[in-house]
Design goal:
375 residues, alpha/beta, Aspartate Aminotransferase, domain 2, 2 domains, 7-stranded mixed β-sheet, 4-stranded mixed β-sheet, PyrdxlP-dep_Trfase_small, pyridoxal phosphate binding, identical protein binding
Length: 375
C-alpha cells in the first residue's frame, strides 16, 4: 500500500531532534525555525517533557472520559493560572480543527442559531464547520458548503456592523494573528469593536488561538494584546509540543450538560502529561517573555536586510515579506544552509515559528544564512 499523495515533500528525512536541532538519515544537522507549523513550543525532546511522558506511560497511558482523571483536572487548573483565564472551563480534544469544530458547535447550541462570520484569508481547520469558516475554496468540498458563513475583510468596521446586525449569526471566529493566511492582524480598535458588537447582538466570539496561543505572540494568548475577553478560546499546536492535543476554553457563563460535547481520545492521560510539561517549561524558563524579547530582536536584525520590505506578526510568530515569491528562497535555506522555515498563502512571505526557547545566537545564524541565500 502507498500513502495517499496529498503533501508536496522536501527531500529531507528527519530521524532525531533536540532543541531546535534536527538530524536527517544522512547525519546532516538542520536548524528548525518552523517547528512543524508552530507546534514545537519548548524544543524537540525537551528532557522535562520526555520524562513527564515516560513517567505517565509507566502508570497509565489512556482511559476514556467515563472515569475520573486527576491529570486532566491538574492541567485545567495549571492552564487557567498560566493563561489568566481562570473564569473559563476546559474541554479537551485532539487537534486545532477539532477545537474549532467544538467551539462553533457550542456557539450554535448556546444561541440556537447557525450562521458564522469569519474573515478573508482565514484558516480554522479542515473538518466540516471549521473548513467552512476557512477562506480557501480549494479545500472546501460540496458537503462543507452547506454551512452559512459570511467572509469579511479585516478591519472593515462598516462591513462588520452591517453583517452582525442582521439575523441568524451564532458566532464570529477570528485569529488574532492569521497563521496560514500570512500574519495579518485585526487592529486593537477593530478587535474591541468586534467584542462590543458580539455582546450587543448576542453572538459568541471565538478567539482562534490554535497557532498564536501558548506564548507564541509574546503574551499567553494573542487576543490579550487587545484587551478583550472572548467567549470561547480554541487551542492546540504548541499545547502539546508535538503530542496530538487540542481544546477549547469556554467562559463560565456557558451551561454544560451531559453529552453536549464528547471525545474518545481527547484529554487522555498521556496528552495531559505532555500538556502539563509544556506549561511547566513555559513557566520555569520564562518563555512567554523570551518570545516577546526575541521578537523585538528579530525585528532589529531584519531592519538591516534591504530586501525585506515588511516584518509581520508578533513575538515568535513572525514573518518576512519580500517583493518576490519565496519558494526558491526556502529551498536554498533548506538545501544550502540546512534551515527549516515556513510559507503562507501570501507567496512573498517567509514565516519564522521556532521553539520559544531559542536564543539571540540562533537568530543571528538565521540572518547570516538569509543574507547569503539572498545573494
Amino acid at each position: 500500500m502507498k500513502l495517499f499523495d496529498v503533501y508536496p515533500l522536501y527531500d529531507v528525512t528527519p530521524v532525531s531532534a533536540k532543541g531546535i536541532e534536527v538530524w536527517d538519515d544522512k547525519g546532516q544537522k538542520y536548524l528548525d525555525f518552523y517547528g512543524g507549523h508552530a507546534v514545537i513550543s519548548i524544543g524537540h525532546t525537551h528532557p522535562h517533557y520526555v520524562k513527564r511522558i515516560e513517567d505517565q506511560l509507566e502508570k497509565i497511558a489512556f482511559y476514556s472520559n467515563s472515569v475520573q482523571n486527576p491529570v486532566q483536572e491538574a492541567l485545567a487548573e495549571k492552564l487557567g493560572k498560566a493563561s489568566g483565564c481562570e473564569n473559563y472551563t476546559l474541554f479537551m480534544c485532539n487537534s486545532g480543527a477539532e477545537a474549532n469544530e467544538n467551539a462553533l458547535k457550542m456557539a450554535s447550541f448556546h444561541t440556537g442559531k447557525a450562521k458564522v462570520i469569519a474573515f478573508r484569508n482565514s484558516f480554522h481547520g479542515r473538518t466540516s464547520a471549521a473548513v467552512a469558516t476557512t477562506d480557501n475554496p480549494k479545500i472546501n468540498a460540496p458537503i462543507n458548503l452547506q454551512q452559512e458563513v459570511t467572509f469579511l475583510p479585516l478591519n472593515d468596521f462598516d462591513a462588520f456592523e452591517k453583517a452582525i446586525s442582521s439575523e441568524g449569526y451564532c458566532a464570529v471566529i477570528l485569529e488574532a494573528i492569521q497563521g496560514v493566511g500570512g500574519l495579518d492582524e485585526p487592529t486593537t480598535e477593530f478587535y474591541q469593536f468586534i467584542a462590543e458588537k458580539c455582546k450587543e447582538n448576542g453572538v459568541v466570539l471565538i478567539a482562534d488561538e490554535v497557532q498564536s496561543g501558548y506564548g507564541r505572540s509574546g503574551k499567553f494568548f494573542a487576543f490579550q494584546h487587545h484587551g478583550i475577553q472572548p467567549d470561547i478560546i480554541s487551542i492546540a499546536k504548541g499545547m502539546g509540543n508535538g503530542f496530538p492535543v487540542g481544546g477549547i476554553l469556554i467562559h463560565e457563563s456557558f451551561q454544560a450538560s451531559y453529552g453536549l460535547l464528547g471525545t474518545t481520545f481527547g484529554g487522555n492521560h498521556l496528552a495531559c502529561a505532555a500538556s502539563l510539561a509544556v506549561l511547566e517549561v513555559l513557566e520555569d524558563e520564562n518563555l512567554v517573555d523570551n518570545a516577546a524579547a526575541l521578537g523585538l530582536y528579530f525585528r532589529t536584525k531584519a531592519a538591516a536586510v534591504p530586501e525585506i520590505i515588511r516584518v509581520k506578526g508578533r513575538g515568535l510568530m513572525i514573518g518576512l515579506e519580500f517583493d518576490f515569491e519565496v519558494a526558491d528562497l526556502r529551498k536554498k535555506l533548506i538545501y544550502d544552509h540546512y534551515m527549516f522555515t515556513g510559507s503562507a498563502n501570501n507567496k512573498k512571505l517567509l514565516r519564522f515559528l521556532p521553539a520559544l526557547n531559542i536564543t539571540k545566537e540562533h537568530i543571528d545564524l538565521f540572518f547570516e544564512a538569509l543574507q547569503k541565500a539572498l545573494k
